[in-house]
Amino acid sequence: MSPDVQTSKWSPTSWESRIASHQVVYHDRDAVDRAVQKLRMLPPLVTSGEIDHLRAQLAEAEEGKRFLLQGGDCAETLDDCTPGAITAKLKILLQMSLVLVHGMGKPVIRVGRFAGQYSKPRSSPTETREGATLPSYFGDLVNKAEFSEEGRTPDPHLMVRGYQHAAMTLNFIRSLIDGGFADLHHPENWDLRFLHHASLPDGLRSEYQHMKEQLAEALKFMENLGDTSIDELTRVEFFTSHEGLNLLYESAQTREVPRKTGWYDLTTHFPWIGERTRGPDGAHVEFFRGIRNPVGVKIGPEAAPDDVLRLIDVLNPANEPGKLVLIHRMGAGAIASALPRLLARITDAGRRVLWVCDPMHGNTISAKAGVKTRSFDAILSELDQAFTVHQNAGTILGGVHFELTGEDVTECVGGGAGITESDLTSNYTSPCDPRLNYQQALEMAFVIARRTNGRA
Ligand code: PEP
Ligand code: CO
């Protein structure tokens, strides 16, 4: 790391002098300037007050007083900005959070991977199909998934379109939440088909049934107490998050706010830095070290604990609570060896972080048909090991991070719904990574609630 990283002067554009990996090559610089200028003038998507509020809640999660549930699509698309898709996403996250609140006995912080998850890092900058080579798909903020010259050419105006769709998404989410989700108070109306699948052992089925009945009773009890308490449970805040990959987009909406010190990235409450862009000298870390938002960092199994420590010192030099979220994504086969040494190094150094497990990104495999998939069992195994490793280390696993959808897709194999490799092609709609479907996501919440009951 160069010695000036922590001391050099920061500005919303100081990242431009650093090497930015996974940045898009635009050909029309004037169009880029026009898009950035437009984004600078448009109102923010979120407010600094909301961001501060989330940071305070994340600080409590660090102490084990709250639990973070973060989830949504791998890549949102502009076409998916529909009432059905948004409602379905919100519902599954809310239902999961109710199961977790009930099982863990603590408040859950709900954070969607939405209203801006439009930017994707890719392992290769180009893709070749039947002899034709074009730029890879980098997310709807940059180009289109459709494999054509026109679709794959990076278009700066998509940054403005992305902003507009994020605004529309957020507007609908805020209204849905304000209106309350009365039907969610009744688990008897939830779609719990996984409970009836033959592959679920009888013992587990009756345990889940019991949990569901208890949850229904608790909700009914609260409902009987009067509207206020039940509304608090289901109406409370929802926060947004996305990978802060496109720094032009992030920095254009980064502002100072009256009567507050510091700069806020107002595209989202909670941006995170991906596994591929977390180099301490790189442009992403430079940008994210200067903002007041809580910041996440994905940590893969190869990360050297000393490097992670240096990263923490750059991103959270004052060791503030609620500021830094380390999202480990190691894989079911690697977590038991890679995580303990990381936890030990960071704990010994006395650094405050919120530890979160992403059991998705270390468990991606290629199925026979050539499509990417993940197995429910591998996801569960990584999660289960994460709880155990943290418990043994005396640290707190304060949250989970999933790629999921509220729809009936067939992208991950396994779970009570019994999706097999041969089902994968029947409804695979993700343009990037495979997501848990509605049944699998809800089942995951029941499993976590059962395993953490009284222990997390
Ligand atoms: C993602 O969250 O979609 C992603 C690309 O993750 P990671 O940076 O952990 O690979
Ligand atoms: Co992904």
Set down the secondary structure blueprint.
Layout: H1 29-41, H2 48-62, E1 67-72, H3 83-104, E2 108-113, E3 126-129, E4 132-135, H4 149-152, H5 157-179, H6 202-225, H7 227-235, E5 239-243, H8 247-252, E6 254-256, E7 263-265, E8 270-273, H9 283-288, E9 295-299, H10 305-315, E10 324-328, H11 335-348, E11 354-357, E12 365-366, E13 372-373, H12 376-393, E14 397-403, H13 438-452
Helix pairs in contact: 1-5, 3-5, 3-6, 3-13, 6-7, 10-11, 11-12, 12-13
The structure holds phosphoenolpyruvate (PEP) and cobalt (II) ion (CO).
Brief write-up:
The chain has helices spanning 29-41, 48-62, 83-104, 149-152, 157-179, 202-225, 227-235, 247-252, 283-288, 305-315, 335-348, 376-393, 438-452; strands spanning 67-72, 108-113, 126-129, 132-135, 239-243, 254-256, 263-265, 270-273, 295-299, 324-328, 354-357, 365-366, 372-373, 397-403. The protein is an alpha/beta fold and 456 residues long. An 8-stranded parallel barrel has the order 1-2-5-8-9-10-11-14, surrounded by 4 helices. The chain has a two-stranded antiparallel ribbon with strand order 3-4. Strands 6-7 form a two-stranded antiparallel ribbon.
